[in-house]
Amino acid sequence: MSDAQPQPVPVGMPAPAAPPRAGSAVGGFFVDLAIAVVVMLAVSFAAFAGWGVLRAIQVAMQGEVDPGDADALMQAIGQPGGVAMIWVTLLGTGTAALVPYVFRRRASAAERAASRAAARRGSTWGWVAVTATVVFALSALATTLARQFGVEPEPTNQEPIRQALAASPWFVGLFVVLIAPMYEELLFRRVLFGRLWAAGKPVLGMWLSGIAFALMHEPPGMTGNPWPSAMLLWAVYAFMGIAFAWVYRRTGTLWASIAAHALNNALALLVLGSA
């Protein structure tokens, strides 16, 4: 598919008198992404610091450790568990999605009305089912084939989710199936992909937002996977991002990409829980 062909204006998005230039839209994409990364890091750092302070107070109140013994205190505080990690992710990434949306890519009343109308079409939910099924099936197939060659990809967020699932299954289910798809789609599809879609560059938007989606889930240098596994995970996450952007554009409503994302996550959580 070539971006050189005329592209339709997104559903519900009033056609501008002069479409944004592709160059300025790409620049805007990276500004939005930079804002999201900075906000996510700042909020996550604050959340971890807050957790550490609360945990230190808890340890001090128990009276089992001398507050003047820094090494013993740090050992008693320990590391955040799975539930705490999910709360940090929720605060950090959720805020990172809301800030660029509210201040740079907020939907107009016309866009919201068109999105609601698209969500009422039966065909929208057919495309949701097809997209989620294809994404989940191809992801599972890629993982299965990789294991035949000795590559064992394990998403970085899998172990915290597994730990949290044992401690608080209802909270984890709510987060994985409902909350995370909503803020991730708001950031990666509405804000990042949507900017290039509006500029007449939807294919470029799919690729760039898909790559950003992959790198946000498996940050280079921070993933615990060896390079072959990390590259496979990047490819799988990028494909997911492209597929969710495609169903968003195909149906004209962000609710479609949220639902496809949620359905994929629900299937993955069922597999993880049964392992």
From TrEMBL:
Any GO BP annotation: CAAX-box protein maturation
InterPro entries: CAAX_protease (IPR052710), Rce1/LyrA-like_dom (IPR003675)
Gene Ontology molecular function: endopeptidase activity; metallopeptidase activity
Domain CAAX prenyl protease 2/Lysostaphin resistance protein A-like residue range list: 168-267
Chain segments annotated as transmembrane: 29-54, 84-103, 124-146, 166-184, 196-215, 227-247, 254-273
Alphabetical UniProt keywords: Hydrolase, Membrane, Metalloprotease, Protease, Transmembrane, Transmembrane helix
Pfam families registered for this protein in UniProt: Rce1-like (PF02517)
Domain of life: Bacteria
Protein's UniProt name: CPBP family intramembrane metalloprotease
Higher taxonomy: Bacteria, Pseudomonadati, Pseudomonadota, Gammaproteobacteria, Lysobacterales
